[in-house]
Amino acid sequence: MSLQMRAAEVFLRLAYKPRMATAERAQQRLAAAKGSTEPPARLRERHEVRRREVGGFPVHTVAPRGRPATRAAVYLHGGAYVSAIAPQHWALVAALADAGVRVEVPHYGLAPQHTHRDAYPLVTTVYRQLLDEVAPADVTLAGDSAGGGLALGVARTLTDLPQPRQLVLLSPWLDLTLSHPDLPAVEARDPWLSSVGLRVVGEAWAGGDDPTDPRLSPLNGPLTGLPPVHVYVGTHELCLPDALALQSRGQEEGVDVDVTVCEGAVHVYPLVPVPEGRAAARAVVRTIAG
Asked: Which of the residues 104, 107, 145, 194 is marked catalytic?
């Protein structure tokens, strides 16, 4: 583990761990303002950015400026289903556009005002619209954290559409109930996430539905028929046990699930500006743009 990753751990434990450490704090997060969906000015200066609405939700298209895109992706941001897209998400989107990738960014509605019942039609429609212009063999469905779980869940429901070329998932939240038996031991090492608070916001995202339903906890659903799945996860985060369980399920069902485990890394480490994160981000961009 690099010194920078150790420093990031200390910062996260002091600044972010308390935000969801109790049910009361989680309720405060649910009630808080959601933040802006607008991309930063620098991204607009460097790339072609278009905004439209799909079903009442904003969607941004970020594409290389002055040259045609060679690949495309639908990117679903994380944030525990309660927080809007953040600067680190836009940074990855910008890096993808630099590499020649057109990126569709649907801003799905957040809990408690919205649930998965709003998100699935939105993401599916955006994907369908993209396939009107781009061959599925050139499209990646990607996401981080909550967005990674949503990406896998949506892919499982694309019964009347071609599957994308691949899925790329960064620390995906695969089980809304966080019930894996190995989770308590891993949680002690996680400087950021707290299972107590996540279960509260997960219930809000479920909107009264069974949180074990595969649309909410895609680890519980079949993987057969999915394209190759690439997962990035650290050893110091809650998402590790379920990511490894997904890999085992892939082996059992004949689906290629490749899991990159970074020793000592925190949640969504490819988005963290430390050596391990920068290296992983470059690998993610190569995978999607290649």
From this structure: 145
pTM assigned to the model? 0.97
Q: Are 163 and 223 in contact (CB under 8 A)?
A: no
Say if strands 47-54 and 57-64 run parallel, antiparallel, or are unpaired. antiparallel
Retrieve residue 24's tokens.
């009361």
Round to whole Å and give the CA distance between 71 and 73.
7
Angle, CA 178 vertex, CA 123 and CA 266 arms, to 5°: 80
Q: Is the distance from CB of 107 to CB of 81 less than 8 angstroms? A: no
pLDDT digits (tens, 9 = 90+) for 113-124: 999 999 999 999
pLDDT of residue 1: 87
In the chain, the number of structural domains is: 1
Which CATH number do you get for residue 193? 3.40.50.1820
Q: Which of 104, 203, 237, 276 is catalytic?
A: 237
Q: How far apart are CA 280 and CA 21, in angstroms?
A: 28
Amino acid at position 57, single letter: F
User: Using one digit for the tens of pLDDT, what is the confidence trace for 27-51?
Assistant: 999 999 999 999 999 999 999 999 9
Range of the domain at 15: 3-289
Kindly state the average pLDDT of the residues 237-247.
98
**Is 267 marked active-site?**
yes
> What is the three-class DSSP state of 251?
helix
- As a whole number of angstroms, the distance between CA 85 and CA 93 comes to 11
In 24-60, which positions are buried (b, 16+ CB within 10 angstroms) versus exposed (e)?
ebbeebbeeeeeebbbeeebeeebebeeeebeebebb
Select which of 104, 217, 267, 276 is catalytic: 267
Residue whose C-alpha is closest to residue 217's, from 197, 239, 234, 185: 239
